[in-house]
Amino acid sequence: MHTSLSLDAYLFGIRVTPDDAYNFAKGRPLTNTSGRILKLHRPLDFLAITDHAEYLGSLDRMNDLHHPISKHPMAERLRSNNSDMRRQAYIDFTSAGRAGRPVQGIAYEDIQSDSWAKIVSAANRHYEPGVFTTFIGFEWSAAPAGRNLHRNVIFKGDAAPLPFSRINSLRPEHLWEWMDKTRSQGFSLLAIPHNSNISNGLMFDTRDSWGEPLSLDRAEQRRRNEPLLEVTQVKGTSETHPSLSPEDEFANFELIEQLVGMSAPVTTFAGGYARDALRRGLELQYTVGVNPFSFGLVGATDSHTGIVTDREDSYSGKIGEADGSPEIRLQKSWFEMDVRRFSASGLTGVWAESNNRDSIFSALERKETWATTGPRILVRLFAGTDLDRLSFDDPSWVQKAYRQGTAMGGELKINGTKAPVFIAWALKDPNSANLDRIQMVKGWLENGITKEKVFDIAWSSGRSIDTKSGRLLPVGNTVNVRRAEYSNEIGAAELSTVWQDPDFNHDQSAFYYLRVLEIPTPRWSTFDAKELGILPPDDLPATIQERAFSSPIWYSSASKR
Prior knowledge:
Low-confidence stretches: none
Number of strands: 25
Radius of gyration: 23 Å
Shape: globular
Distance between the termini: 43 Å
Oligomer: single chain
Mean pLDDT: 93
Largest sheet: 8 strands, mixed
Helix content: 10-25%
């Protein structure tokens, strides 16, 4: 989440404070740039405000005529009511950032310190243990040549040092070194890469930023500092791409294939998506000896408006003046990007003992997390060799699964020759659509090369696997596109199963994660079209199947080089 302390948010006309954003997350209304009063249908449990570290608060202070920054050549353009002037200022800033050239004369230490103090104090002021948890955080926003390498850095405690920004370095290795040093000073923190889908293959490169093959030390450093990956947000879902998973019928979901704020398309998908990175991790485990990509999965909005944009029926855009109303959003263009491709997404779920910083941060560290594209679907995944005796009718099945197995985010240890058993469970969001199916996504290492397969393992009643295609028959579609309505007369409220991998091989390292799909529902652009009294654009999907992704469980064989 961003506020007006972020350079780009301010340029988008956003004037919300951290207090505004936290209050909105707790259920209070907030007015967006188009004058609409918005309110969450249900408050959040936790939130991290992660304003961009670069020039933190500088633009906000350009209105302070008593500060020298107000005399900067950029200041007059930024104070202007002319959106074209602010647009050009944005282009100037982003162009300098992509080229690694800091804009001179706006990185005042006193402004950065004051702004960071506001972020820290707001997080501590709004923290209500047991009710609402806040985390201190910032975003490191390197994007060399427009290739997104952004990371959100999250702190556990009530204090944190000044952020490390792309002005300090464009190399993620230097960010990790700073994190290691900060950790040695007594701070607990972690980094979460996001929008890997628009990194043009750079986010999960098997080389370091100097072009050298990834070393054991660098692989361990990345694994230590980045236990999580943001797999879905407004700028697209980064699970997989049809070119990477051609056999996956649900791979073509909410894709962004354009570099941010540029006309340049993404041309390299390998190295930019979660499933491909998980596969690369198995290969690096085999060749280097450490898996740097053994991350859990989370979701976020990355909203720059202080407003959570997770629901299709109340989507309010990400970038303020450029997409704050249906009329503007459906006009397509923002800095040469098609904002109609943006998603109403996403959220992070954690299994934590309590709603407080210690418990939630521990869940993030151990990767007992899942991501959703908006709906608050609940997901559980366990694996173990003795879980086949568990019954979902037993009220204590979860406690027994914890005792006898490995939860999502963990590494499965197997003694003997027995194949593991997986426990998969999902419960619908009571304010959203029924569930279509649970799928198990598997990747494995075979003779040094990784492969993948998607299994349908649980689904709503009345269907079967088609004998010819080997695929589960579709759940159906109740959506009335003109009215932007659907019916829950199909699908299931809850799905669960005990599943065993029919192809399990003790000599093949593997990962397993769940993908849970809802039945089809109207996309946000369909709701916008209804409000405007027009048909949805025919080059956009009128309906989507919202989904959730569990963190993986890994199995490492003894067969390594």
